[in-house]
Write a structure and sequence with these properties.
The protein has four helices and two strands; from the N terminus they run αβαααβ. By secondary structure, it is mainly alpha-helical. It has one domain. A two-stranded antiparallel sheet has the order 1-2. Helix 3 packs antiparallel against helix 4. The chain is elongated, with a radius of gyration of 32 Å. The two termini are 29 Å apart.
């Protein structure tokens, strides 16, 4: 069978498939894709933009709530921690003065060790958060410089 006849033969047909994957990191699709949406269904772009605006406002309100809650916790925590520490030291002193030396010393030592441990843990967490934030920033900058586009055959 000649090559020409083989290409028309249904038993020897070749199926080729190609898919294109494009990614973007924005609440809205790129303008070209928006234009295609508008061509398919008029008014779709306005709906997509409205959805993005609603989602953005919702995200900002959640972020505001988290920031305000964290700020409140950071203001109140030192006072509550100090009150607990002073109470433990006071009751530890009272136990020692009543002859319960082991319990009193253990209570005072435990309170002081807890404060020191929390302080050290907080400093380590803070440093790790800063490092993690810098790593995430560097990764995002690299991705912005090299947008992903894949062709799959």
């Amino acid at each position: 069978m000649s090559r020409r006849n083989r290409n028309n033969d249904p038993q020897h047909s070749i199926v080729r498939s190609q898919s294109v994957s494009v990614t973007f990191s924005s609440p809205l699709p790129p303008p070209g894709l928006l234009k295609q949406y508008e061509e398919v269904q008029p008014g779709m772009v306005d709906k997509i933009i409205a959805m993005a605006e609603v989602q953005s406002a919702h995200r900002r309100s959640l972020e505001t709530t988290v920031v305000e809650s964290n700020a409140f916790a950071q203001k109140v925590s030192p006072f509550l921690g100090s009150a607990v520490l002073l109470a433990c030291l006071y009751f530890g002193y009272k136990l020692v003065s009543m002859g319960q030396n082991a319990y009193g010393v253990a209570l005072m030592f435990g309170a002081i060790a807890s404060v020191v441990g929390i302080t050290v843990w907080g400093k380590i967490s803070y440093r790790n958060d800063l490092k993690g934030g810098a790593d995430a920033f560097n990764k995002a900058a690299q991705e912005a410089m090299n947008p992903e586009r894949q062709l799959v055959e």
